[in-house]
Design goal:
heterodimer, A: mainly alpha, two-stranded antiparallel ribbon, 4 strands, B: nine-stranded mixed β-sheet, two-stranded parallel ribbon, 11 strands, 20% strand
């Protein structure tokens, strides 16, 4: 577009255009380069992690110790009268690498975190967007966003020392450090993320929609529940997906508050071991290039791929919802 | 735009300069690097502090990361001393001589006893090694099976990156697996904290004192007396779960490093050990290091771990 500018000061049109056009081109290319660079970093990280993990499936040393079946299928560990089909104990005379307990642990903790955080965050967002007077919104919104800056290690510490004791006294758990404890602490970390995105989504709903609803005689609550919320659904969903992604990858809180026991059970009141905590706890001491090392990188790769798929699915759902809502409305 | 470009250029030049300077500092090689066991890192730091205050001009760098990390650094040549709370494996020793061209020198520098903690409200106060094995492998699941209340036993342990985990597994569990419900915590302090808050808990770790827990007396087998994990019992070898803490070097030390190691193995150096919470080496081990006569048999039998 720069070359369409006409220099009025003198008659030398050609020379006035060229340097400006050149500068435009350089700036555009620089911005493009930055965008590609961001993508390149992600791709390179994926390549690095995959490069350390993939030899697991063809290297003879690794194949002897661990393979697909040992990672995913039930084995004959334990004793005949007390069989344990899935055991994660890589430092042992017979290393055991069942991933099931880790997957289950991650799933349990993330579920509890989302069940705890999403309703609270959404309710808070609806309140500040629809019901709160101006001065309340001005105080609450920055306060919740400040909560996002809370270091996760502090939340983990709080859960380990204080929350675990409260919960054990209230519910008489067998295990003091369990999935519920870590899940709630994780929920606290995830609330600000869901809140911020939901609040923005609710705020982006055009005022006209609300006014039309009120004009037709609906109360504030009815409007909020039946008009504004459905209109903001794509954004709310996006907030939940972001929160879920954060919950899956969070390491410090689960490392400190979940007990880290690789148990395969559906009980939420037992200790759990997550993928992220396993990597964090074990990578420091593992021998470079050993099967254990490769399995840990495989865990990292799985986390990476899963989060990627999750975010893509979230994006797709959001696009569909958006088409649905704008199509109908 | 021009200002920004100039600013960026200055920043880049500054960064390059810093990188060059720090690289040069490292390449000087006059400092002694000690790396390894988290169990021993405070001890290493305390030794370094005392030594450096008396011998300025020899910087000593101490970092943790785990016994395995220290050994890996020794193999790669990125440290002078590897601190380890477990003995080095033969395969690791072979790698050192292969990669660094010098044989490994193993020096026991302190003693540590592994204590088993229970909550102070737990009526059980002594257990045998066999009962401990049954508890941690999940065979005994209830306190009443070992003389306590009718309650489930809640197991606490360390992460598998810890030398303490490996030591307990080899010498108390006799290489059996920990039961999957064993909760893993990042350090001795965390284990003590967890057991202090859980009346049904049991945990293990270095001998350290904390509010709310008590140490169990351990008997070697059903007929032996139950021994308290005290300094005298660990030093004399009476307490069954005691181990050496090691310094590993590549090749015999020389120059500043030799002076440091020699000092650590004197009574003066060993006095630091007690302040940190471990146990100093008995006389005969120190004299043996210094080249004097020693009660060889006693020292050898402890090396294997459980007596």
């Amino acid at each position: 577009m720069g070359d369409l500018a006409i220099s009025v000061s003198s008659g030398t049109l050609q020379r006035a255009r060229a340097p400006r056009r050149w500068r435009e081109w350089a700036i555009t290319k620089l911005i493009q380069l930055n965008a590609w660079l961001a993508l390149a970093f992600i791709a390179l990280i994926l390549v690095f992690v995959a490069r350390e993990a993939v030899p697991l499936f063809y290297e003879p040393a690794s194949q002897a110790e661990v393979g697909w079946s040992r990672l995913f299928l039930p084995q004959h560990y334990g004793t005949p009268d007390a069989p344990l089909p899935y055991v994660w104990q890589p430092v042992s005379t017979e290393p055991k690498y069942s991933l099931m307990p880790l997957f289950l642990g991650t799933l349990k903790i993330t579920t509890i975190a989302m069940l705890f955080a999403a309703p609270l965050a959404l309710a808070a967002a609806v309140y500040t967007a629809e019901f709160a007077p101006g001065w309340v919104r001005e105080t609450v919104k920055p306060a919740v966003e400040l909560l996002a800056g809370f270091p996760s290690v502090v939340l983990g510490f709080f859960a380990l020392i204080v929350l675990a004791s409260w919960l054990q006294r209230a519910f008489d758990f067998d295990y003091r450090l369990n999935a519920v404890n870590a899940g709630i602490a994780l929920g606290l970390a995830v609330i600000p993320i869901i809140y911020t995105v939901c609040e923005d989504a609710l705020g982006a709903v055009p005022r006209g929609l609300r006014e039309a609803s009120w004009a037709l005689g609906a109360t504030r609550a009815e409007t909020a529940w039946r008009v504004v919320l459905p209109a903001a659904l794509p954004g709310i969903f996006a907030g939940c997906v972001l929160g879920f992604g954060r919950a899956i990858g969070e390491t410090m809180i689960v490392l400190m508050a979940s007990g880290n026991a690789a148990i395969t059970s559906w009980s939420f009141t037992e200790s759990v071991r997550t993928l992220s905590a396993t990597i964090a706890a074990e990578l420091a001491e593992v021998v470079f290039g050993s099967p254990h090392y490769r399995v840990l990188f495989l865990l990292g790769l799985l986390l990476f791929i899963f989060t990627l798929l999750l975010n893509s699915a979230g994006e797709w759902m959001i696009a569909r919802l958006r088409r649905h809502l704008t199509g109908r409305a | 735009m021009k200002k920004m470009a100039r600013g960026l250029l200055l920043l880049a030049a500054g960064a390059a300069l810093l990188a060059g300077v720090s690289r040069q500092g490292l390449a000087q090689g006059r400092n002694i690097t000690v790396k390894g066991s988290d169990t021993m890192v405070i001890l290493g730091q305390r030794w370094a502090e005392v030594y450096m205050s008396r011998n300025p001009g020899v910087p000593i760098q101490v970092t943790g990361g785990g016994s395995g990390t220290g050994i890996a650094a020794l193999i790669n040549g990125t440290c002078d001393v590897a601190e380890s709370s477990r003995p080095m494996k033969d395969s690791e020793k072979a790698e050192v001589s292969q990669k660094r061209g010098k044989p490994v020198v193993e020096i026991p520098v302190a003693l540590d006893g592994l204590a088993v903690y229970v909550n102070e409200q737990n009526p059980v106060s002594e257990l045998s090694l066999e009962q401990l094995k049954k508890i941690y492998t999940g065979v005994a699941k209830n306190w009443k099976e070992v003389g306590g209340r009718d309650e489930r036993i809640i197991l606490y342990g360390r992460e598998n990156s810890s030398g303490t985990y490996v030591y307990f597994k080899e010498h108390v569990l006799e290489n059996a697996d920990y039961y999957p419900t064993t909760q893993t915590l990042p350090g001795t302090a965390a284990v003590i904290n967890a057991v202090a808050r859980d009346t049904r808990g049991i945990g293990y770790g270095g001998i350290a004192y904390g509010k709310g827990i008590k140490h169990l007396r351990v008997r070697k087998d059903a007929n032996s007396p139950a021994i308290e994990p005290s300094m005298d019992n660990v030093m004399s070898g009476a307490y069954p779960i005691s181990r050496y803490l090691y310094w590993y070097l590549a090749g015999q030390p020389a120059g500043d490093l030799k002076k440091l190691v020699d000092w650590v193995m004197t009574k003066d150096g060993q006095s630091v050990v007690e302040n940190v919470g471990y146990y100093p080496l008995p006389e005969d081990v120190l004299t043996r290091y210094a080249g004097g006569p020693a009660k060889q048999a006693k020292a050898k039998s402890r090396k294997s771990g459980v007596k």
